[in-house]
Amino acid sequence: MTTSTLTPLAGSQLGNPVINIAIFAAFVVATMFIVVRVSSGRTKKKETSDFYTGGARFDGRQNGLAIAGDYLSAASFLGIVGAVAYYGYDGLLYSIGFLVAWLVALLLVAEPLRNTGRYTMADVLSFRMKQKPVRMAAAISTLLVSFFYLLAQMAGAGGLVALLLGVSDDFMQNVVITLVGVLMIAYVLIGGMKGTTWVQMIKAILLVTGVIVMSIWVMALHGFNLSSLVQGAIDHVNSVQETAGQGESLLEPMGKYGSNKVGFISLSLALVLGAAGLPHVLMRFYTVPTAREARRSVSWAIGLIGTFYLMTMILGFGAAALVGKENIDQMPGKANAAAAALAFELGGTLLLAIIAGVAFATILAVVAGLAITASASFAHDIYNNVMKDGKADPRVEVKVARYTVLVIGALSIIGGVAAKSQNVAFLVSLAFAVAASANLPSILYSLYWKGFKTQGSLWSIYGGLTSAIVLIIFSPAVSGAESSMIPTADFAWFPLDNPALVSVPVGFFLGWLGSVLSDEDNTAVSTEMEVRSLTGADAGGAISH
Amino acid sequence: MSTPSRDPEIPAQAGEDGHQNRTARLDAEQHTTSQHHPTAEDFSAVAQTEEFQQLRRRFRGFAFPMAAFFIVWYFTYVLLSTYAEDFMATRLGSSAITIGLVLGVLQFATTFLITWLYVRHANKSLDPIASQLKADLEEAR
């Protein structure tokens, strides 16, 4: 395989759009069939537990697959392969935070969460607090984090079409974003959590299989020797006239983040503490019957996610060695096209179409998980527990959840269309920062500190949330730099792209301060919560009808 | 962000201080259940037992130091990558593998190792006590 095979695709799109679309359509039809099948069984669709958690009947291995399907976004697939292809070592460095973060979930969060809650993050946060104010705070945080994440995914879908289908036309991009939104609504309304989980499991299998096959292929071309693969990438950079002598930079840290080291440390903090505070991740721990299955879920997820990121490193170096940055740069999407360009180089039109289909599937599975989480939080926390004092008719509650899905779907389509030409990649790191600053402190305090009080919980959630959002508005992510969302304005006074380095300590500090200043006495219920969290007593496992 | 003083609009079923009666709420949600719901007294009785204290010690004794270890190890790696760039870019012999790459792959390895160790610890040392206590609590009386 020589670089000459690449000439036809330089400056244009890759592969055959018709085949790309056909493979994607096949995924949609197959998953829709499965979603309809699993949801039309003997289960009563009106039950809240069915809609929110699939009746908690998944086993740990299935749920581990679904977690990986929920967590591995198109951005982490295309983005990290591209980052490794362009910056080498830095791409690997970036991906590690996304994996290591799962140890927080495994060691500290998943099992006690499963034992003390049923449907939402707020179940756990409000357990020993005054119900209404804490549920409201937790629901607001859940809705905001899920919406930031959702918006980033939807806007990204527009870019992905441009990249994979060669559609740079504004109208067609809007059509595709709308289609993604409509499919998301359909999966969630028809299948509830059960259908969503199946979509995520199928996507995870396709995605992980896809990257493993491509990685083995890349390694085979380099004699299964990582050193010669990396050397191949370096040599390729050196062989191009414009970049001759710059190959070594692939081995050097901070090529990508060079100017902003503290910003990168802040991002690392957001990643490592954020994953276990993302509401759509937390909700997945409720879809299994016991804490033991929750533990199995996380260990499966860690295996899958870790394998995935190791493979993306190989694919990134493979793209740098076999395709080359100078060729990837010619394609729409630039660095984000690295994975697609590598697929085309290895397996031609068909492999490219498969990888393109998998990337679309990835977006669908992630947005469906976000939509169901946000709708559950609105219906269960705000509608039932805050507005109806926890006495709402479960049927009405599910109906409210379904209407919420429609509203969220509509909002995300409108937001996605509006944001598609903006640089909104920072929304994902913002979602992680809010999760790490507003959610995780309260979760950890609730589970492990008996002195934690209602006031501390509210100060922590609102304080972490506000500081993260305010700081990012005044950061270079939004204004004052070429890569900002609004490059033409400059109102940035906070120097870091990611606020976690400040907002996470703020969240922990306010949680402590609000608690020690409170005279609330919740000792008895705190003891009860601790016993529940460690033993799983009365946790209500799988519900059989 | 106002501090919630004693909220006058606390639901009718909420107990003292606005803390809802957990058992009543679970019954309302989980209307298919037939098992015995332990009371607050049951829970505080179990909390006093030696078995529970042992479970708590074994869980915290493993999870907390391990969490501290991986966070320190991860940030050591991040800080080396940000402030010791030349060290991390050092090649091992004549290969293209650098110290940074090795430490990066070791992060994956330790993550897998900690997962395996924790699952083994939980299955062996935590689950038997936890299920015994759970059974005691749920036993209808």
Automatic annotation (TrEMBL), chain A:
<feature type="transmembrane region" description="Helical">
    <location>
        <begin position="171"/>
        <end position="190"/>
    </location>
</feature>
<feature type="transmembrane region" description="Helical">
    <location>
        <begin position="459"/>
        <end position="479"/>
    </location>
</feature>
<dbReference type="InterPro" id="IPR050277">
    <property type="entry name" value="Sodium:Solute_Symporter"/>
</dbReference>
<dbReference type="Pfam" id="PF00474">
    <property type="entry name" value="SSF"/>
</dbReference>
<keyword id="KW-0813">Transport</keyword>
<keyword id="KW-0812">Transmembrane</keyword>
<dbReference type="InterPro" id="IPR001734">
    <property type="entry name" value="Na/solute_symporter"/>
</dbReference>
<dbReference type="InterPro" id="IPR038377">
    <property type="entry name" value="Na/Glc_symporter_sf"/>
</dbReference>
<dbReference type="GO" id="GO:0005886">
    <property type="term" value="C:plasma membrane"/>
</dbReference>
<keyword id="KW-0472">Membrane</keyword>
<feature type="transmembrane region" description="Helical">
    <location>
        <begin position="92"/>
        <end position="113"/>
    </location>
</feature>
<protein>
    <submittedName>
        <fullName>Cation/acetate symporter</fullName>
    </submittedName>
</protein>
<feature type="transmembrane region" description="Helical">
    <location>
        <begin position="425"/>
        <end position="447"/>
    </location>
</feature>
<feature type="transmembrane region" description="Helical">
    <location>
        <begin position="298"/>
        <end position="323"/>
    </location>
</feature>
<feature type="transmembrane region" description="Helical">
    <location>
        <begin position="202"/>
        <end position="220"/>
    </location>
</feature>
<keyword id="KW-1133">Transmembrane helix</keyword>
<feature type="transmembrane region" description="Helical">
    <location>
        <begin position="400"/>
        <end position="419"/>
    </location>
</feature>
<comment type="similarity">
    <text>Belongs to the sodium:solute symporter (SSF) (TC 2.A.21) family.</text>
</comment>
<feature type="transmembrane region" description="Helical">
    <location>
        <begin position="499"/>
        <end position="517"/>
    </location>
</feature>
<feature type="transmembrane region" description="Helical">
    <location>
        <begin position="350"/>
        <end position="379"/>
    </location>
</feature>
<dbReference type="GO" id="GO:0015123">
    <property type="term" value="F:acetate transmembrane transporter activity"/>
</dbReference>
<keyword id="KW-1003">Cell membrane</keyword>
From TrEMBL, chain B:
<keyword id="KW-0472">Membrane</keyword>
<dbReference type="Pfam" id="PF04341">
    <property type="entry name" value="DUF485"/>
</dbReference>
<protein>
    <submittedName>
        <fullName>Uncharacterized membrane protein (DUF485 family)</fullName>
    </submittedName>
</protein>
<dbReference type="InterPro" id="IPR036259">
    <property type="entry name" value="MFS_trans_sf"/>
</dbReference>
<feature type="transmembrane region" description="Helical">
    <location>
        <begin position="62"/>
        <end position="84"/>
    </location>
</feature>
<keyword id="KW-1133">Transmembrane helix</keyword>
<feature type="transmembrane region" description="Helical">
    <location>
        <begin position="96"/>
        <end position="119"/>
    </location>
</feature>
<keyword id="KW-0812">Transmembrane</keyword>
<feature type="region of interest" description="Disordered">
    <location>
        <begin position="1"/>
        <end position="43"/>
    </location>
</feature>
<dbReference type="InterPro" id="IPR007436">
    <property type="entry name" value="DUF485"/>
</dbReference>
<feature type="compositionally biased region" description="Basic and acidic residues">
    <location>
        <begin position="16"/>
        <end position="30"/>
    </location>
</feature>
